[in-house]
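Final report, Chapter 2: Outcomes

The project's central promise was a pipeline that accepts a single protein chain and returns its three-dimensional structure in a standardized token representation, suitable for archiving and comparison. That pipeline is now operational. To close this chapter, we reproduce one record exactly as it appears in the project archive, with the input sequence first and the structure output second.
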Amino acid sequence: MQQNYENIKDTGTELFAISSENVSLTKNTTEKEGLTYPVLADTNKDVINAYNVLDQTDETIARPSAYIIAQDGTVAWKSLDSFASRVPTATILSELGKL
């Protein structure tokens, strides 16, 4: 995602990630990985549970997923990926182009 962050922003959208780690660990991961997009800490897993992406094999983490939320707040597209498999950024860019 980081490699295509500017391409995503060029579509007029914003990318952000949600982590189940606490704020300190999330910040460390963001800095270590050189991420320039926002990464939000969801320690209580409120958002993770709201979007039903809690990993059923390890309830301490979310399973890889991607959502495109339209300006009216509706889910325009989503991908709920299998463990350790993420949707390619090219797919997300393609879906953004359809909006």
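Archive annotation: Residues 2-93 form a domain with the Glutaredoxin fold (CATH 3.40.30.10).
This record, like all others produced under the grant, will remain available to the consortium after the project formally closes.
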